[in-house]
Amino acid sequence: MLITNRPDADVGTLRARLDGAVYGPADAGWDQARRAWNLAVDQRPAAVAFPVTDADVVAAVEFAAERGLRIAPQGTGHGAAALAPDLEGAILLSTARMRGVRIDPRARRARVRAGAQWGDVSLPASAYGLAPLAGSSADVGVVGYTLGGGLSWLARKHGLACNSIVSLEVATAGRGLVKVDAEHERDLFWALRGGGGSFGVVTAMELELYAVDDLYAGAMLWPWERAGEIFDAYRAWAQTVPDEVTSLCRLLQAPDLPDVPAPLRGRRFVVFEAAVSGHEPYRRDIVEPMRAFGPELDMFAVMPPAGLVEIHGDPKHPVPAMGNGRLLSNVGDAALDALLEAAGPGSGSPFVSVELRQLGGALARRDPSHGALASLDADYSLFAAGVVTGAEAAMAIDGALAELLDTMAPWDAGTGYLNFVEAPDHPRRFFDAETYAILKGIKGTVDPGGVFLSNHPV
Predict the structure, then answer these.
(1) Distance between CA atoms of 283 and 285, rounded to whole angstroms?
(2) Residue-wise pLDDT tens digits, 48-102
(3) What DSSP letter does each residue of 266-301 carry, written as one string?
(4) b or e along 150-159 (b: 16 or more beta carbons within 10 Å of the residue's beta carbon)?
(5) 313: phi > 0 → left, psi -120 to 50 → alpha, else beta; which?
(6) Coil, helix or strand at residue 69
(7) Is the dihedral of CA 402, 73, 363, 385 positive or negative?
(8) Quick check: 424 and 85 in contact, CB under 8 A?
C-alpha cells in the first residue's frame, strides 16, 4: 500500500519503525516539517521523516523499497526548488536532526554526520588553522553541497569539495549501510563525488581539511553606477591572479530589511569579493589593483579560516528566493555589456544579487583520483537570485532569470554546475556523455528500483 496525501496506516507504520519523528499531512506540525530553507518552495511529499540514527535511515529506506516509494534525502533545503516537483508520493527524509562533527587535527580530517552544516565544521577546524572546502554560508548543509560539487573560497587552490571526500557511510537499497571509499565500493565512491544524491542516503562523510595559516579576505563596494568600470577592471585583474586567489564580482541590490547591515540597507552596489592565502605583503599586493578604483567600502582584513563564511553576507535565516545560473567561457567585452544591460543599472532588474565567480586554477585540473565531477570546464560561474515577496515578485524574477540566461547563452560553456541550477533540468546537462553513461550504469546497479530521489536525479 502506498503512502498518499491522506492520513493512513502507512504513516503510522513508518513512525513505528523509527526513533525519530514522522509527519503526515494530517499531523500537527506538518507545514513546518515539510518546509525547506528556501521558503519560496512548496514541498508536498507523502510524508516527512526526521531520522536521528543511522538505523532510522536504513529503516526508512527499507520501508520505501517495500512499498515502491521513493526517498528524497534533504539536509537544509537550500536547493529544494529543483527537487520539489518530483516529491509527490515520496518520503522526504530530513537529516536536520543528525548533526555532529569530529575534527581530527593531526590527520587533517573532519567526520560529519548527515545533517551537519558548514558552520559546524568551519568554526572548530579554524581553531587548529584548518579549513574545509566550505560553502559561503554557515547554514548550508555539508552533504548536499559536497555531493553536488562544492565551490568554496579555496576552490582555485584546492579544487571542488567533492574531491576532498575521503570516505562515506551510505544507506543503500537492499544492502543496508555500507562503507564507501577508494578501497570499498569504488564505483559508488566515484559516483558520489560530484554525481549528486541519486545513489543512496549518506549518513556520514569524512573530508580532508586544509592548512590555512591566515587569509586576507573580504569585500570592496562601489556605487552600482560604476558597474561597467568595475566589471571591466575585475575581468582584467582576474586574468593575472594566481591559484591562491578565489574571487567574484557581483551586482547587489540590498533589501531594506533590519538584518541587512545599515551601510548597505536599501542601496545598490557593485561588489568585489576575494579570499587570498599567503604572506601579508603578497596578499595586499594582490588586491591593490582593485583598491586603486577607490571603493566606498573596503572590508578586506586578515582573518582566520572561519571568517570565510561571512564574506558573502548570505542571509542567516530562511528566506523565500528564486535563482538560477550557468557556466560561461570566453567572457569578453560583449559578454559583460550583455550582462549589465540585462541586470545592471537601468535594467529594472529584480535580482538581489548577480555574480560572476572566477573558476580555473585547480577547478580546471582533472586528476585520475577525482570522482564523477573531476573539473569545471568553464571560465566563470554566473548566478542570479531574487527575494520573493509575493506572486508579482515571483513572476518578475522568473521572467528576468529566463531573459538573463537567454542573453548569456552565446557564452555558455556547454555544461552546467548542479548546485547552482535551481530549476529542474536533465542531469546530462551537468556531465559529459561518457560520465553520464557511467553514472546511469552505477545508478542501475546500486538502486535498480529507483528508490533514491535527488534534485536533477540520475
Answers:
(1) 5
(2) 999 999 999 999 999 999 999 999 999 999 988 888 888 988 999 999 999 999 9
(3) T-EEEEEEEEEES-HHHHHHHHHHHHTT--SEE--E
(4) bbbbbbbbbb
(5) left
(6) coil
(7) positive
(8) yes
Distance CA 98, CA 58 (A): 14
Report pLDDT digits (tens) over 193-230.
999 999 999 999 999 999 997 799 999 999 999 999 99
345-to-298, 342, 396 alpha-carbon distances in Å: 22, 9, 17
Provide the angle, in degrees to the nearest 10, between the axes of the packed helices 333-343 and 391-407: 170
Half-sphere exposure of 278 toward its Cβ, with a 13 Å CA cutoff?
16
pTM of the model: 0.94
Cell of 115: 545533517
pLDDT in tens, 98-152: 999 999 999 999 999 999 999 999 999 999 999 999 999 999 999 999 999 999 9
Q: Which residue has the cell 560520465?
A: 435
Residue type at position 152:
S
What the chain holds in terms of domains, given with CATH numbers, is 9-94 (3.30.43.10), 101-211 (3.30.465.10), 215-420 (3.40.462.20)
